Please model this.
Amino acid sequence: MYLVTFRLDPGEYNEEFHELNDAIQAAAEDTDGYRGKRTWHTPESEEVLVAYYWESLDALETFGAYAEHKEAKQRWTEWYDAYEVTVTEVIESYGSGFGDDADPPA
Model:
């Protein structure tokens, strides 16, 4: 499994951003191998962290080829003040107490 963390400092969002963002999320959900996402907001700043779960690098690469995703990557300065993406291979994941919200998402 692979975990992609998208850390961002949001700027100004407009209607075009929301339409593109919705299209990207739909594309992710339509990609075989997409397992879900979790989002956290930093209470002391505007910073947001989104963790996306993927079954394989092939699935992630398929998603990365979507036109909407490529467009958003080219236009990031219109909507974000800063961003960082980290791709990590998950070797093991375990825990207890989160019930249906346990990572990774089903």
About this structure: The beta strands are 2-10, 34-41, 48-54, 80-89.
